[in-house]
Amino acid sequence: MTSKHIRRLLVANRGEIASRIFRTARTSGIETVAVYADGDANASFVRGADHAIALRGQTSLDTYLSIEKILHACSMTNADAVHPGYGFLSENAVFARAIQEKGFIWVGPPADAIEKMGDKLTAKSMMHDAGIPTLHAVPVASGTDALAAADDLGYPVLVKATAGGGGRGMRVVENGDQLQADLESAQREAQSAFGNDTVFLERWITATRHVEVQILGDTHGNLVHFFERECSIQRRHQKIIEEAPSPAITPELRVALGEAAVAVAKSLNYSSAGTVEFLLSGEEFWFLEVNTRLQVEHPVTEAVTGFDLVHEQLRIAEGEPLGYTQQDLSISGHAIEARLYAEDPTKDFLPTSGTIKKWKPSSNARFDSGVETGSTVNIEFDPMIAKVISHGRDRNEAIRKLTLALEQTHIQGIKNNRDFLVQTLKTPKFVAGDTTTDFIERVAPLRERPFEMEELHGVLIAVALFSQRRTNDHDEPDQPKLKSQLPAQHHAFEFNGEDYDVKCDLITDHEYRVVISGTQFDVRVVLIEENFIDIEVDSCRVRCNLHRDEDTWYVHMSSGDLEIRTRPLFSLQDTTHRTGNLSAPMPGKVLTLEVEDNSQVKSGELLLVLEAMKMEHRIVAPYDGVVSAVHVAIGDIVEKDVLLVEMAVSEQN
Predict the structure, then answer these.
(1) The pLDDT value given to residue 532
(2) How far apart are CA 430 and CA 80, in angstroms?
(3) For 375-388, what is each residue's pLDDT tens digit?
(4) Which of 165, 339, 414, 646 is the most buried (most CB within 10 A)?
(5) What is the pLDDT of residues 271-313, one digit of tens each?
(6) Could you tell me if 384 and 239 are in contact, meaning their C-beta atoms sit under 8 angstroms apart?
(7) What pLDDT, on a 0 to 100 scale, did the predictor assign at position 261?
């Protein structure tokens, strides 16, 4: 086979995966091309590329899913090759063929393999015929009696999209009453995310492990596997913590899984990187699907094998042989990856959006991210902020390193899941390797970081003194005023809905007497610098990095971040909240509207469906009542906190 050389690579993707591919391309001497939607015009991955082309659109369908626009960008920039990343068009056989037909190098598997595995039902049928264990699945077509099929499978059942991945188009159905609504919701979500609304039903096994095997093949017929990853810690059927190797895999099972994965790859004449996914229960496993692309969690495999998988993809696309065999590969240590998302774990992991006020990753782990201070997370795309990857000599060391790196990272201004990830890593069940797909429901890690009152008092004092010392423009950073020059000052703060009054009285030199809600503290200021304060509170050291934006103080400590809001010392009673009003929990688009003015509704009844970040979010009645006013229509784009529906308690209640 004739070797091809890549001089200029276009990445048909965005965010952290585009940045990650650019990084390897640069080390290989390859120029890079970014493409971007309107909302990504100022994103760091765009500025990090050698060339960039605007796709002129806001939605995925208008931009990153537009084959025509991607091909035009390739031609405009004289790109030699296209890397699809993951998501979007990465598993689209039509796109892969179009790239090659236009004479560009495709950095991915053969289009035939993508086509066969792109439909999960076809993939299951092929694997069943090949003798690989699979779970029975029932396709849902226009004439399918879905209720009868679900009854035959036995509840709970899984509704799953045949295309795509990432948890989109998936619903666990507990009983027949919710089947039809969940089918329709999954179909809408799949159509929005992948352009294909076909779904199927499958038996749902609650307590299993999700284990996948990394495969890699060249165009000369050589195939190897890079061992397994475990990806069982999931919410909304989407992985959030992955590790390699799996703590549940014995050497014998590792061999069996690896051989099964390579057999799958050989049946497809596979080349490039891919992943064969399995469900595991004890020593028994079932085939799930083949992801014909690079996976989000590929860095943990890189960490334990020492290979750069993107570099290997580029070599294979240029026609080079692997140059190594299965016997040359081994596992070194243990690696864990945590996905940082803009979402609110306390609200069932509801995606959030907004501007990142401060982003400073820890230096003690690998960060794959596409954000920086000032980056915007918008509602059109996946809310991932970064992937954080640790590598240790063993699993316990990897856990400690990842936990510390997450705690050390400054991430402020947008609600995120960092504290939930830390709490998960600290649970005895996770440390013991007791990780199954029902982990979050079964173990119930804390959704946010618990605060001891002593810690909160220290932070409030630090913010008050830092604010007080910055009030006078003539203050020197490290020279306090004399007591006669700086009388006692009051500060009013709010944290997690609670109000705190902080009174700071300078006693002598660097010493203060501070009173918070009647409790007195002796405080000594050790150091104040730009955006940093170091104090002693009753002999306990408190060190904080601080950043103020309008009425909010963003505080970073060794244990993580928190936000302290200032409020007027004398404020009027809040009269804006009206019981019974339902506001948008995030910016989004109104997909369905199930009620109208004067509708009688029961508690939990669906009022409307809001779409944000390609996920559907159900807005339901909080109690039995009557809809007094509907303020939106289907298709409306709404901002966070916009009033959607007004309700009142029914007269009979």
Answers:
(1) 95
(2) 45
(3) 999 878 889 999 99
(4) 165
(5) 999 999 999 998 889 998 899 999 999 999 999 999 999 999 9
(6) no
(7) 95
Instruction: Taking residues 310-328, report their average pLDDT.
Output: 98
Torsion of CA 398, 401, 402, 405, to 10 degrees: -160
Residue ranges in 427-523 assigned as alpha helix (H): 428-431, 439-443, 453-471
**68 φ, ψ (degrees, to nearest 5):** -60, -45
Q: What share of the chain is helix, strand, coil (3-state, %, to 5)?
A: 25, 35, 40
CA-based nearest residue to 358, from 176, 208, 553, 203: 553
170 within 8 A of 184, measured Cβ to Cβ: no
Residue whose tokens read 């007591």? 483
pLDDT band at 165; cut points 50, 70, 90: low
Alpha helix ranges (H) inside 37-118 = 44-47, 67-77, 93-101, 111-118
Phi then psi for residue 569, to 5 deg, are -60, -30
Residue with tokens 């066969």: 116
**Furthest CA-CA distance within the chain:** 88
For residue 46, give Cα distances in angstroms to 79, 108, 375, 417, 490. 16, 22, 12, 25, 46
Choose among 561, 298, 197, 526: nearest CA to 414.
Answer: 561
Query: Under DSSP, is residue 35 helix (H, G, I), strand (E, B) or coil?
Result: strand
Residue 8 to residue 294: CA distance in whole angstroms: 20
* Residues sharing a CB contact under 8 Å with residue 143, sequence separation 6 or more, in sequence order: none
Average pLDDT over residues 420-428: 98
Residue 458 pLDDT greater than 90, yes or no? yes
φ/ψ of residue 83, rounded to 5: -110, 125
- pLDDT of the residue at 253: 96
Q: pLDDT tens digit string along 30-74?
A: 999 999 999 999 999 999 999 999 999 999 999 999 999 999 999
Give the pLDDT band (50/70/90) at residue 477: very low
Predicted TM-score of the model (pTM)? 0.83
What's the sign of the alpha-carbon dihedral 112, 118, 119, 123?
Answer: positive
- Burial status of residue 602 (CB atoms within 10 A of its CB: 0-12, 13-18, 19 or more): exposed
CA dihedral sign of residues 101, 104, 105, 108: negative
Contact (Cβ atoms closer than 8 angstroms) between residue 312 and residue 289: no
Q: 46, 68 in Cβ contact below 8 A? A: no
pLDDT, averaged across the chain: 89
Cβ pair 480, 510 in contact under 8 A: yes
User: Residue holding tokens 């056989």?
Assistant: 93
d(CA 418, CA 415) in angstroms, rounded, equals 9
pLDDT digit string, tens, across residues 225-257? 999 999 999 998 899 999 999 999 999 999 999
Contact indicator for 49, 22 with CB cutoff of 8 Å: yes
E-assigned strand segments in 308-422: 334-341, 343-344, 350-351, 354-355, 358-360, 366-369, 376-377, 384-392, 410-412
At 263, the pLDDT band (50, 70, 90 cuts) reads: very high
Output the pLDDT for position 577. Answer: 34
Q: Omega into 84 within 30° of 0, i.e. cis?
A: no
Does residue 351 have a cis peptide bond before it, meaning omega lies within 30 degrees of 0?
A: no
Which token pair is 101? 């037909």
Nearest Cα to 36, choosing from 10, 56, 51? 56
* Cα separation, 309 vs 305, whole angstroms: 10
